[in-house]
Design a protein that fits this description.
Number of helices: 10
CATH class of the largest domain: Alpha Beta
Strand order of the largest sheet: 1-2
Helix content: 25-40%
Order of helices and strands: HEHEHEEEEHHHEEHHEEEEHH
Distance between the termini: 41 Å
C-alpha cells in the first residue's frame, strides 16, 4: 500500500503472486485486494493454482518459493522487490525489509516511468493533527484491515489507559507515547500473543500525521467486556506463527491441541496429522 501510493505514475504496475495456491483462489485474492483498498487498476494479484504452477512461476521469476520446516521462515521465498522495465529487463532488486532500499526502488521506478528524475513525493495523506485526519490515514494505510481482526493484530478500541502485557512478559499502561512508539518502531514493544509483523512507518509519515493517528486511536470507544487473552503458537502445517484465541482454527490429535493460520491448513492436518508431526521430528534431529 505504501509503495503503491509513493509511486503515483499510472504506467507503473505492481504484480504479486501467491505462495499458498491451495488457499489463495482468484476469489480469495480479490477479497484480499478489497480489504486492503489497493488500486486494482495497477495492482495485479496472481493465483498460482497448484504447487506445480507455483514452482514454474517462481522459476520464471528466478526466485525461490517453497514451504520449509523452519518455524521462523515457514515459506522460503524472496523478500526482494524486482523492478522490471517495459522491455522485460530486470533493472534492480530491492530489500523489502530495508527502508533505504525501498526509497531507492521508489526513485528508480519513477525514473523509469518518467525517463528523467521525478520530484520527491510524499504519501497523499492529510497533514493535520486532527481525529478526522487520523481516521483517514488509518483507513488509507490499511491499518483497519489488520486491527479489526484479532487473529492478525490487537484491537485498538480503548487501548490508551489499558494495562497490556508485552511479548517479554513485562506489563505497562498504554499511553499516547506508547502508541506513537508503536507506529514508528513497532517491534520495540509487541503485545503478547502477536508476532512482530507490523510495518515501520517512520519513513513515511510526518510528525503531524503520526500525531493525527494517535489522536484517532485515543478517540476510539472502548470495547465492552474483558480483553481476549492470546498467545503465540506455530501452525504445524505451514510453520507460521499464529495468534491463538477463541477464534483460531484448531484440531486435537492424540490429546494435544494444534492451532492453524487458516481453515486450509487445519483441513490438511486433519487428513494426515502424523505426516506434519513427522516433519517436525525430522527437522529437530
Amino acid at each position: 500500500m505504501i509503495l503503491q501510493r509513493s509511486i503515483p505514475e499510472p504506467n507503473v504496475r505492481f504484480v504479486s503472486f501467491t505462495v499458498d495456491p491451495e488457499h489463495d483462489t482468484p476469489a480469495v485474492l480479490a477479497e484480499y485486494a478489497r480489504t486492503w483498498s489497493g488500486d486494482t487498476s495497477r495492482w495485479i494479484l496472481l493465483a498460482t493454482e497448484n504447487e506445480t504452477r507455483l514452482r514454474e512461476t517462481a522459476m520464471g521469476m528466478r526466485v525461490a518459493a517453497q514451504k520449509t520446516n523452519d518455524p521462523v521462515d515457514p515459506v522460503m521465498h524472496s523478500n526482494k522487490f524486482i523492478l522490471v522495465d517495459a522491455s522485460g529487463n530486470v533493472r534492480g532488486l530491492y530489500d523489502s525489509t530495508d527502508a533505504a532500499s525501498m526509497q531507492k526502488l521508489i526513485e528508480h521506478a519513477r525514473l523509469l516511468a518518467n525517463h528523467q528524475p521525478a520530484p520527491a513525493v510524499r504519501l497523499q495523506l492529510p497533514d493535520q493533527p486532527t481525529v478526522q485526519a487520523g481516521q483517514e490515514i488509518f483507513m488509507t494505510l490499511g491499518c483497519y484491515a489488520c486491527h479489526t481482526n484479532e487473529r492478525i493484530a490487537p484491537r485498538l478500541n480503548g487501548l490508551i489507559g489499558r494495562k497490556v502485557t508485552l511479548s517479554n512478559q513485562q506489563t505497562l499502561v498504554a499511553d499516547e507515547a506508547y502508541v506513537k512508539e508503536s507506529i514508528l518502531e513497532p517491534s520495540a514493544k509487541v503485545i503478547a500473543g502477536y508476532p512482530p509483523n507490523m510495518p515501520r512507518y517512520a519513513a513515511y509519515l510526518s510528525p503531524t500525521q503520526v500525531q493525527a493517528l494517535v489522536a484517532y486511536i485515543a478517540s476510539l470507544t472502548p470495547d465492552t467486556g474483558p480483553a481476549t487473552e492470546r498467545s503465540v503458537s506455530v501452525d504445524p502445517v505451514c510453520k507460521m506463527d499464529v495468534s491463538v484465541g477463541p477464534d483460531t482454527p484448531q484440531a486435537t490429535y492424540q490429546g494435544k491441541t494444534y492451532y492453524f493460520c487458516c481453515e486450509s491448513c487445519r483441513s490438511r492436518f486433519e487428513k494426515n496429522p502424523q505426516n506434519f508431526l513427522n516433519q517436525d521430528q525430522d527437522s529437530s534431529q
